[in-house]
């Protein structure tokens, strides 16, 4: 019985179909189908019922799925145990934000792949909040103020930002001087989030309103430069535009508190070695980050 056949079956079972499993594994759908057929033939039982909507586990498949997943996990652990000290192998699927991912995290993931030549890293860049368990990710990197959830989070660094607007917006609508004044302005947001500001040691929370929303910080920066409204954006997104004069920092007497860079993983007693190594590399990368003057 081939370990890759077992691993493929687990992916199909968790993803709910051949196509999403193929995307997770980075192989063709025909390869996934061949592995499933080979596994079922060897076991002499049908594990999956193919439908027009995907694939559903049969009763035998439900029983076999957890055993197969445990075997795969044990094989990965055994491989890592016999490798030279500190070496990693197997796969690591990571969900990374599109806005910051290519510029801030891609180099860390590349360095990890270079250090561990037997490790397969699959990265998905998107600003949507992925379902780690349903979509088969080992972990995700997320930015901002973390919401309560049943996921386990490790903060690996700070991220600083500020309120910005275009000179045209300020000329037309004025610039708010206090957080309470934001309710009279158009806010550019990712959803229905709250904004926080520091007044000395006190934190002020406001609930801005606006007609323009996007799940990408770069898109919000473009809207701000177009004069549509005021945006809270990370410094890495706005620095260049502030230097060029396209955006202007506003309400600087009440800075937002530092947000965080987090590695999120599904609940469990201990992170896998692969996730633990990624966390440590990210901490090393961002530990020199200091609050801007």
What are its keywords?
293 residues; alpha/beta; Arc Repressor Mutant, subunit A; D-Maltodextrin-Binding Protein, domain 2; 5-stranded mixed β-sheet; 9 helices; 14 strands; elongated
Walk me through this protein's architecture.
This protein has 293 residues and is an alpha/beta fold. It has three domains: 3-82, Winged helix-like DNA-binding domain superfamily/Winged helix DNA-binding domain (Arc Repressor Mutant, subunit A, Orthogonal Bundle), CATH 1.10.10; 89-157 and 260-286, Periplasmic binding protein-like II (D-Maltodextrin-Binding Protein, domain 2); 161-257, 3-Layer(aba) Sandwich (D-Maltodextrin-Binding Protein, domain 2). The chain is built from nine helices and 14 strands. The protein has helices spanning 3-15, 18-25, 29-43, 59-82, 101-115, 167-173, 217-225, 235-244, 273-286; strands at 48-51, 54-57, 89-96, 118-125, 139-144, 152-159, 161-165, 187-189, 195-199, 202-206, 212-213, 230-234, 248-249, 259-265. The strands form four sheets. It has a five-stranded mixed β-sheet with strand order 4-3-5-14-6. The chain has a five-stranded mixed β-sheet with strand order 11-8-12-7-13. Strands 1-2 form a two-stranded antiparallel sheet. Helix 1 (3-15) crosses helix 4. The longest helix has 24 residues, at 59-82. It starts with a helix and ends in a 7-residue tail after the last helix.
């Amino acid at each position: 019985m081939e370990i890759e056949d077992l691993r493929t079956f687990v992916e199909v079972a968790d993803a709910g179909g051949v196509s999403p499993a193929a995307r997770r594994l980075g192989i063709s759908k025909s390869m996934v189908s061949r592995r499933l057929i080979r596994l079922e033939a060897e076991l002499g039982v049908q594990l999956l019922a193919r439908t027009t909507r995907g694939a559903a586990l049969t009763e035998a498949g439900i029983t076999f799925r957890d055993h197969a997943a445990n075997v795969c996990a044990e094989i990965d652990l055994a491989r890592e145990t016999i490798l030279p000290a500190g070496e990693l192998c197997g796969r690591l699927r990571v969900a990374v934000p599109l806005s910051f991912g290519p510029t801030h995290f891609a180099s860390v993931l590349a360095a990890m792949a270079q250090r561990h030549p037997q490790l397969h890293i699959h990265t998905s860049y998107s600003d949507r909040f992925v379902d780690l368990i349903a979509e088969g990710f080992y972990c995700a990197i997320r930015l901002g103020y973390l919401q309560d959830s049943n996921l386990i989070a490790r903060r690996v660094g700070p991220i600083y930002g500020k309120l910005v607007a275009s000179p045209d917006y300020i000329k037309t609508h004025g610039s708010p001087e206090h957080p309470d004044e934001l309710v009279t302005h158009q806010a550019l947001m990712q959803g229905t989030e709250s904004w926080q500001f520091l007044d000395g040691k006190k934190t002020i929370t406001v609930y801005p309103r606006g007609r323009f929303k996007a799940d990408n910080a770069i898109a919000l920066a473009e809207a701000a430069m177009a004069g549509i409204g005021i945006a809270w954006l990370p410094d890495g997104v706005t620095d260049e535009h502030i230097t060029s004069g396209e955006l202007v920092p506003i309400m600087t007497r009440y800075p937002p508190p530092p947000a965080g860079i987090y590695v999120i993983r599904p609940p469990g007693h201990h992170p896998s070695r692969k996730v633990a190594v990624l966390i440590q590399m990210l901490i090393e990368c961002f530990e020199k980050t200091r609050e801007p003057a």
